[in-house]
Write a structure and sequence with these properties.
The chain is of the alpha+beta class. It is built from 10 helices and 20 strands. It starts with a strand and ends with a helix.
């Protein structure tokens, strides 16, 4: 059974009257890779800073190994932090950057010996795949190598918890994917609890044991990556974690939902008869068939080639669906679709109902999200607010 390491109990935070965290509860286990995921301003970085001791919650408690640490300063917590800006010492080489914290006096005034410092640094260089780089000038390193140095510097003190605040944000896409794998391997090799902040859904799903989805200062869902993706609890989570078509439905009975006046079999149970619900259908779970064989028929209004597949926007009764398929259906084609029962997920209505899931503006959203300036704007906004 997993051992609880950190607990946030009823924690709230506000800046200038603006509520950033709203009475959140969160349990983090020892040796866990947990990711705080959400859009700019959702409260994830504030949560991280409260755990690190850089902020004190306006109300609520922070417990570490069962001990309340609200008033314990950052340098006295068994926690280290890696930021997006690595803050390396440019006048020191790789070895000395990593060794810097080890040369400081330990609790009680005891310093580590030169041999022990060298042993610990070389051990970390091995962990971050930088063996042989110890004499290199940090300014001569690539972005990914500098990030590894920053991580090694944080890990060399052997903290119980490592906080990582968007550490891959400054890297290009290919290097980010490589570093995602390396970070997960580091966490498993060291057994240190990682608490990771990101707005990148793919990043969260790829690395985490547990994902905490946040919005408006509230935790919307906690679960494994598989649970979060396959069983979202509301329309916000369904939309934020991957692409989702989210339509209004009526739960006629256990295992039977009505969409656009048509009945579809599903696997969900426990709803009231004729209860209004939100219906989630992932783009990859939709099969294209001939119109006469389709459960629904619609017209293709947009096609975008994405390499392995096509993103096709189809108009069904005025509602725009996204379908991801390896088969090309040209613009103007009338097609039918079939959805297996396990491709339909039912959610109760929430405050987010009606806000997500229609792909009328899909192309504009995609262009915006892929724009470098837009990504920088998100990061700047998050830092300013949180």
């Amino acid at each position: 059974m997993a051992k609880e390491l950190i607990r946030l109990s009823k924690c709230s935070m506000a800046f200038d009257g603006d509520v950033v965290l709203d009475n959140i509860d969160l349990c983090i286990n020892d040796k866990e890779f947990l990711t705080l995921l959400g859009p700019s301003g959702c409260g994830k970085t504030t949560t991280l800073r409260i755990i690190g001791g850089f902020l004190k919650p306006a109300s609520g408690d922070v417990l570490f190994d069962g001990v309340r640490i609200n008033d314990v300063p950052p340098h006295k917590r068994a926690v280290n932090t890696v930021f997006q800006k690595y803050a390396l010492f440019t006048h020191l080489n790789v070895f000395e950057n990593i060794a810097f914290g080890l040369r400081l006096a330990r609790p009680g005034g005891k310093k580590l010996s030169k041999d022990e410092i060298a042993s610990r640094v070389m051990e970390m260089l091995e962990v971050v795949s930088l063996k042989g780089f110890e004499k290199r000038d940090v300014s001569s390193l690539s972005g990914g190598q500098q990030q590894r140095v920053a991580i090694a510097r944080a890990l060399v003190n052997r903290p119980k918890v490592l906080l990582l605040d968007e550490p891959l944000g400054a890297l290009d896409m290919r290097l980010r994917k490589d570093m995602q794998n390396e970070l997960k391997q580091m966490q498993q090799a060291t057994g240190i609890t990682f608490i990771y902040v990101t707005h990148d859904q793919e990043e969260a799903l790829a690395m985490s044991d547990t994902v905490v989805v946040m919005e408006n200062g509230v935790i919307q869902q906690i679960g494994t990556p598989e649970d979060i993706y396959n069983e979202p609890e509301n329309a916000f989570v369904a939309d934020f974690i991957g692409e989702s078509n989210i339509v209004d439905g009526i739960m006629l009975d256990d295992g039977l939902v009505e969409i656009f006046g048509r009945k579809f079999k599903c696997l969900d149970k426990g709803f009231k008869p004729s209860e209004p619900v939100d219906v989630v259908i992932r783009p990859e779970d939709i099969d294209i068939v001939s119109p006469e064989k389709g459960q629904l028929t619609g017209k293709v209004i947009s096609v975008t080639f994405r390499g392995l597949m096509y993103d096709i926007i189809v108009d069904f009764n005025g509602f725009k669906w996204l379908i991801q398929t390896t088969d090309l259906s040209p613009i103007g084609t009338t097609l039918g679709i079939k959805i297996d029962p396990d491709g339909i997920h039912i959610m109760s209505k929430s405050q987010f109902s009606g806000m997500y899931g229609d792909y009328s503006s899909y192309s504009a959203e995609y262009d915006e999200i892929s724009d470098v300036d837009y990504e920088v704007e998100i990061e700047d906004a998050e830092g300013a607010r949180e």
